[in-house]
Amino acid sequence: MDLLNNRSRVSEFVLLGLSTSQEIQIFFFAVFFLVYVAIIVGNLLIVISVILDNHLHSPMYFFLANLSFFDLCLSSAATPKVISDLLRKRKTISWWGCMTQMFFMHFFGGAEMSLLIAMAIDRYVAICKPLHYKTVMSPKALIVFLLLSWAIGLIHTTSQMVFTVGLPFCGPNVVDSFFCDLPLVMKLACTDTYVLELLVVVNSGLLSLVCFILLLPSYAVMLVTIWHHSSSASSKALSTVSAHITVVILFFGPAIFIYAFPFNSYSVAKFLSVFYSIITPLLNPIVYTLRNQEMKAAIKRLSSQHVGSWLTH
């Protein structure tokens, strides 16, 4: 009962944001707004193209469409609030709003991490075990991989949030960030959070680091296999794998730094948080569309069909 009373003393958190300068905040507002629109358009375009174009009905594009969906959700967990706060002098978020934001950030972050591993497995089988590809990456296997991603995302966020929600917040309520970030919010609790801080390091930081380290050898094997085959098919495979490696580094790099070393270097962590939550969801569709001829062709077909049907009407 005391915990509930203590917790209720803090009904909202104050976010310090990215800058105190009004001019810089207006600049960030314009940039973040345009970036968020590009995230929605770019990722939706990939999802719609994969659904409507028969040429893209393969495991690789199935995963890509789901990655784009996760990117949409991950960026939408915090970015709209961040954008609207840039026009406010006092940036606040309710207690429940803060908890909800952290829940969905880690839910879709954990799900995306799992999906990137599934995508690496898909490419590994396609390049290193091509004769077994259709058997291993069957429609049933794809659904299992996707459900596992959702399940891991849910377990990942619930295992942290179930303890965070129960923390007593009765004093300081200022978060030195532009959204509710788990390590920073935990620090504000009116109790010793050392054990929970270790849980965050293990659950988010160490997990990201281990997954990243496990992915590197698989991509190294793929690159060596491609190197031994000089053909147009291997050149296409190299383009696909290099796109995958780029996305994996962009996703895991900031996550490892923020959560494996979460209680130091706040200014650097703040910059990486922008990268992780806003820039990466934009770069993913750019990387996959610019380096993928089939995706570019599908988008052209989709746009020409709709422009054609619009002109005939």
Briefly summarize what is shown.
The protein is mostly helical. Helix content is 77%, strand content 3%.
Protein model, in words:
This protein has 313 residues and is mainly alpha-helical. The protein has one domain (2-307): Rhodopsin 7-helix transmembrane proteins (Rhopdopsin 7-helix transmembrane proteins, Up-down Bundle). It has twelve helices and three strands. It has helices at 2-8, 22-52, 59-76, 79-85, 95-128, 133-136, 139-164, 182-186, 194-227, 232-260, 266-290, 293-312, and strands spanning 12-15, 92-94, 174-175. Strands 2-1-3 form a three-stranded mixed sheet. Helix 5 (95-128) runs antiparallel to helix 10. The chain is globular. Residues 1-8 have low confidence and may be disordered.
Throw out a few tags for this protein.
single chain; 313 residues; Rhopdopsin 7-helix transmembrane proteins; 12 helices; disordered N terminus
How many domains make up the coordinates?
1
List the total number of helices: 12
- Alpha carbon gyration radius: 21 Å
Q: N-to-C SSE series?
A: HEHHHEHHHEHHHHH
Any idea what the shape is? globular
Percentage of residues assigned to helices: over 70%
> What's the story with the biggest beta sheet?
3 strands, mixed
Unreliable stretches covering 5 or more consecutive residues: 1-8
CATH topology value: Rhopdopsin 7-helix transmembrane proteins
CATH architecture: Up-down Bundle
**The level-1 CATH class:** Mainly Alpha
Assign the structural class, choosing from mainly alpha, mainly beta, alpha/beta, alpha+beta, or little secondary structure.
Answer: mainly alpha
Mean pLDDT: 85
